[in-house]
Amino acid sequence: MTIAEPLLVVDRIRCDAHGLCAELLPERITLDEWGYPIVASGPLPPELLDHARRAVDACPVLALRLAASGPARSRPLAAGRA
After folding, report:
1. What is the rounded CA–CA span in Å between residue 74 and residue 26?
2. What is the DSSP letter of 15?
């Protein structure tokens, strides 16, 4: 059985464009012209997972989360907010 790799997911409805996520994880998140996040596609490399968790925890409107990739994609990972 393969262990799912983490993905960074943004709830675009909930997001208020504070931009904190891009400051905490510039390797994977950029901001569009209005300040909304653009997340690089694909699983997170292991070396960025701790930084991604910090970005998820710092989101003031809970718009950012980590999810498992693959068939269990909709299932949140244990660490960080769901």
Report:
1. 24
2. -
